[in-house]
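Bench notes, afternoon.
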Amino acid sequence: MFMKRLKTGIPGFDKLIGGGFPERSSILLVGPPGCGKSILAQRFIYEGLKEKQPAIYITLDTSPEDIVDNMNHFGWNVEGKKDLQFIDAYSWRVGKVQKKYAVSNLSNVNELNIALSELIKKLNTSELKRSIFDSVSTLLLYADPSLVVKLIPILIAKTKKAGYTQLLVLEEGVHDQKTVNTLNYLTDGVIKFKMDEEDRFFKIERMKSTEHSAKWVKFKVTNKGLKV
């Protein structure tokens, strides 16, 4: 049965996963800080916006304004695009919650759930949609991990039902193995990242409905994003 795939806009990467991420899949991006996880996620969002595909960006690690600035830095102009909507779960930490879809306290995970439900209703206008959760690690830091592990499958199911393909970012080395294994089990695919002194690598550990190599692949971060 033919499965639609959503391109990341990184030709070398898309070639390795059969043309793009499987439609309505949830993919876990795991690796150390600064390895390129968020850049991949942002490129994925931008590729969809070029095709008028709505996007939800749940940000817990930086402000929506900084994300827009970072994407503009790579030449991905998303300024003022109505198809891109943020759930701001960051700004409350600095006492600044101005976005309509915002979280005022990460310890109350239900706030995040409600904000996502409201935004999904607003953007229910296209067959293909994209979503980013950056990062699950920050939610685990501020909220009860047992509640987070129960919330994640609800958020995944909700976005899938609404037609979203979702990337979830997880920082490596800061969570117990049971939590990591659970998140691995809950998602449809896992991409791992690593770095040495000079180079960056990724490995497609698993991906539903996709033939792929499990070898480490070298990539670079350029002024235009990731290059495989």
